[in-house]
Amino acid sequence: MKFQCPSVYSWMLDLLHCCFSLLRVRSEAIDSWKVSFKMASVTSAGLKVLHGLLHQLAEAEAGLLEGPRRVAVADRQVAAGEQQVDQQKQAIKDARRTADEANLRLRSKESDILKLEGQLNTASSNKEYDIIKGQIVAAKKDRGEIEETGLLGLEAVDEAQRRLKEIEAELQKRRQQAQAVKSEYEVLKPKLQAGIESLQQQISEAEKVIPGSEAATWKRLRLAHAATAMAPLEDDFCSACSTRITSQDMVRIRTGVFVYCRDCGRALYEA
Fold first, then answer.
1. Quick check: 246 and 83 in contact, CB under 8 A?
2. Contact (Cβ atoms closer than 8 angstroms) between residue 45 and residue 131
3. What is the torsional sign of CA 71, 76, 77, 82?
4. DSSP track, 133-183
5. Which run of H or E residues covers position 270?
6. Percent of the chain residues past pLDDT 90, beyond the cut
7. Is domain 67-209 annotated with CATH 1.10.287.1490?
8. Percent of the chain residues topping a pLDDT of 70
């Protein structure tokens, strides 16, 4: 008969039971970590999608605002061109007035010369004759200066009229460009508005990844920073402010918790 020791068998059974328990606990821990990392992956992926949509919305809204800005710039250029036309027309009037005044002075001076030449025939002495002759010489000199002024005035009128044609042609070009900008915007506007509406719907759906407890905070953050309300991590640093993330926050992010940067307040996610 073989000798059997109950205590040895009992000890071995307890040891096996302990080993199996440890294996079960370890398996459960591994499964738990798998769930956590899966949750973190899903959360980060969702936040990345949301961030991309926010950037697309910002670009679309900027495009919608760019249209009216371009239209306003084109309208200002047209208004400036119209002002240049008015100023040039006034310059033509001024040049023509100067030429007309010179012509009147010229006629008056020629009349004076004729009068003086008539007085030469009635001079009663050589002295009076010389005086009148000197006056005629001076009057003819003045007439020459007036003629030159008149010619310059006429040239100024011609130059101003030539310049007016150039300015009017430029104004016509600006008007055509302004109309083209307006037409282009009218065509693009409905498409941009439809795109913005679609993006807003996608964003509303993507925001479901954010916990309900953080909805109010997230709303304020997005209102303040729009597309820059979120920041991906770059080597454990916030890409918005370059602040290093604490180990505790890194664990929270990797377990699917919605975390804000402690420095700049942006919502963080792993890219």
1. no
2. no
3. positive
4. HHHHHHHHHHHHHHHHHHHHHHHHHHHHHHHHHHHHHHHHHHHHHHHHHHH
5. strand 267-270
6. 60
7. yes
8. 85
